[in-house]
Design a protein that fits this description.
Elements: H1 2-31, H2 33-55, H3 58-69, H4 73-104, H5 109-123, H6 127-132, H7 136-157, H8 164-180, H9 186-189, H10 204-231, H11 234-270, H12 274-311, H13 318-325, H14 328-343, H15 349-374, H16 376-397, H17 404-407, H18 411-431, H19 436-456, H20 460-474
Helix pairs in contact: 1-2, 1-7, 1-11, 2-4, 2-5, 2-10, 2-11, 3-4, 3-11, 4-5, 5-8, 7-8, 10-11, 10-15, 10-16, 11-12, 11-13, 11-14, 12-13, 12-14, 12-18, 12-19, 13-16, 14-16, 15-16, 18-19
C-alpha cells in the first residue's frame, strides 16, 4: 500500500506542477500573445542546457543511492552530504559557464538573466533525497503550496504583453522557493555527520554515467524548441511548448510510477530479491499500459478542438501538433517502466545510456529535414520517432531478462479498447458543435466506452484493482 500511496502523492504533485501552468497558460496565452509565449519557451530551452550541467545526473542517481542505504541512518546522512556537495559545485560551474555565454548572447538578454534564477534553484533541490526514502508527502505538500502561490501571483502581476520578463521571474522564483521549503526537514531526517570523512568525488563517475543519458534526453526535449526558434520563429517554439504542456500533463499520471518505483525496486535489488523485482515490473508495465492507451487515443481524439479552444485565438497550430505528439504517451510510458524502473535499479546504466543516446541521434538526424519540410509538425514527428527508437532499444536490451509474452499479455486488449473509444469521440469532435460542455461529454463517453470494452475483454487490470480495494478495506 505504501507504493500506491506514494504513487498517488507523486501523481498529485506532478499533475499540480503541470496543471498550474495549464490554468495560468489559458490566461497568459491571451495576455502575452504567441510572441511573448514563444520568447519564454525559447529562452527557457536555452537555460535548460546549463541546468543540465548543474543537475549532473543527480536526480536518478541520488534517488537510487539513498534507497540503497536508507536503513543505515549514518551512512544515509554521509551519502546525502557527499552528493549535495557535488551538486553545489556543479551548479557554480554551470553559472560561470552561463555568464560566459551571456558575454556573446545579445538576443533578449533580460529574458535570459530572468531565466538564470532557475539555475540557482537547482543547487537547492533535494527532492531526490525524499524520493529515495520514499517520503513523497513532504515534497508534494510543500511544493504544492508554493505552486498555488505562484499561480495567484501570475494573475495579480501579469497584465500586459510587455510583462514577459516578470512572468519568467515569477515562474523561476516559485521553483526556487519550492526547493527552499524542503530544507527545514533535513535536520529531522539526517544524523550529524563528520565532515572530515566525506568523500564526495567518489560519486562523480557514477553520476557521469547517468549524466550522459540526461544530456541525450535533453537534446530531444529542449533542442526541438531551440531549433524551431532558430529555423522557423519563436512563436513556433511557443506552439511546441504549449502542445508539450498538455501532453506532459497526461504523461505525469503515467511517469509518476517511475519516480515511486525506482527506490522501491532499488531496495529490492539491494536485498538480492530479483524475483520480486521482475514481478513488480510486470505489474507496473500492465498498469501503465492500461492507463496509457486510453490517454493516448483520448487526447488525440479531442486535440484539434481542445488546443485552440483552451489557449485562444492564434493557437490553432497547437491542435494538429498535439495530435501527433499524443503517440509519445504510450511510448514514453513503456520506456519509463523498462528504463527507469528496471535498467537503472539493476545497474544496467550502459543500456539505458545507449537507448537515450540513440534517441538523441535519431532526433538530431530528423530535426533539420522534417522541420524544413513541415515546420512545427515536423518537430513533433521527430520527437515521436526518437521516442520509439529509445523504447525499442530498451526492449531489445532486456530481451534475455524478461518474458515479453507476460509483459504484453493484456496490451492488445487495451489497444482494442482504445481504438473503439477513439472512433466515436473523434467523429463527435469533428462533426458536432464544440463547447466546453461538449468536450466534457466526449471525455465521459470515451471513459465509459473504454471501461466497458476492457470489462468485456476481461483485462487483468480489473482484477488487480479489485484486490487493491479489498486490501484497503481489510486494513
Amino acid at each position: 500500500m505504501k507504493v500506491i500511496k506514494n504513487y498517488l502523492y507523486n501523481v498529485g504533485y506532478q499533475v499540480l506542477a503541470i496543471i498550474v501552468p495549464l490554468i495560468t497558460s489559458a490566461y497568459v496565452s491571451r495576455v502575452l500573445r504567441p510572441e511573448g509565449v514563444g520568447a519564454n519557451s525559447f529562452t527557457n530551452s536555452i537555460i535548460q542546457y546549463f541546468i543540465l550541467i548543474a543537475n549532473m545526473g543527480i536526480g536518478f542517481y541520488g534517488n537510487r543511492q539513498i534507497a540503497y542505504v536508507r536503513e543505515n541512518r549514518a551512512q544515509m546522512s554521509q551519502t546525502f552530504w557527499e552528493i549535495q556537495i557535488v551538486k553545489t559545485i556543479m551548479t557554480l560551474y554551470a553559472f560561470v559557464a552561463f555568464e560566459v555565454f551571456m558575454i556573446f548572447y545579445t538576443r533578449q538578454p533580460e529574458y535570459m538573466w530572468a531565466q538564470s534564477i532557475n539555475l540557482i534553484a537547482v543547487a537547492l533541490d533535494i527532492s531526490w533525497f525524499y524520493e529515495g526514502i520514499e517520503d513523497f508527502k513532504v515534497t508534494v505538500l510543500k511544493n504544492s503550496f508554493v505552486k498555488i502561490i505562484s499561480m495567484i501571483a501570475i494573475f495579480i502581476f501579469i497584465k500586459e504583453p510587455d510583462d514577459v520578463t516578470l512572468y519568467i521571474i515569477v515562474l523561476a522564483l516559485s521553483t526556487l522557493l519550492g526547493n527552499l521549503t524542503l530544507w527545514p526537514n533535513i535536520r529531522r531526517d539526517l544524523s550529524r555527520t563528520d565532515w572530515k570523512i566525506l568523500n564526495p568525488w567518489q560519486h562523480f563517475l557514477p553520476m557521469l554515467e547517468l549524466f550522459i543519458p540526461q544530456i541525450a534526453t535533453q537534446v530531444y526535449v529542449q533542442l526541438n524548441k531551440t531549433m524551431l526558434g532558430v529555423m522557423v520563429n519563436e512563436t513556433a517554439s511557443g506552439y511546441y511548448q504549449y502542445s508539450d504542456n498538455l501532453v506532459k500533463l497526461i504523461l505525469a499520471l503515467v511517469t509518476a510510477t517511475g519516480t515511486v518505483m525506482l527506490p522501491h525496486v532499488a531496495n529490492a535489488v539491494s536485498h538480492g530479491n530479483m524475483e520480486k523485482v521482475n514481478k513488480m515490473l510486470y505489474k507496473s508495465f500492465n498498469f501503465v499500459s492500461a492507463i496509457s492507451y486510453p490517454m493516448m487515443f483520448g487526447l488525440a481524439a479531442i486535440s484539434l478542438t481542445l488546443a485552440p479552444k483552451y489557449y485562444g485565438p492564434g493557437y490553432g497550430p497547437v491542435g494538429p501538433a498535439m495530435m501527433i505528439e499524443s503517440i509519445v504517451i504510450l511510448i514514453i510510458a513503456w520506456s519509463n517502466v523498462i528504463g527507469v524502473q528496471y535498467l537503472l535499479p539493476i545497474h544496467r546504466q550502459k543500456q539505458f545510456t545507449w537507448s537515450v543516446t540513440l534517441g538523441a541521434i535519431v532526433n538530431l538526424s530528423l530535426n533539420v529535414p522534417l522541420i524544413k519540410m513541415w515546420g512545427l509538425n515536423g518537430a513533433m514527428w521527430s520527437t515521436v520517432i526518437s521516442e520509439i527508437a529509445v523504447t525499442f532499444y530498451q526492449m531489445w536490451a532486456v530481451r534475455d531478462l524478461l518474458n515479453f509474452k507476460e509483459l504484453f499479455l493484456d496490451s492488445w486488449k487495451y489497444c482494442v479498447a482504445g481504438i473503439l473509444m477513439f472512433i466515436p469521440v473523434f467523429w463527435m469532435n469533428l462533426h458536432l458543435p464544440q463547447s466546453w460542455l461538449m468536450l466534457g461529454i466526449e471525455v465521459i463517453i470515451g471513459i465509459l466506452i473504454y471501461g466497458v470494452a476492457i470489462w468485456i475483454l476481461k483485462a487483468s487490470i480489473l482484477n488487480e484493482g479489485r484486490q487493491v480495494i479489498k486490501e484497503k478495506i481489510h486494513k
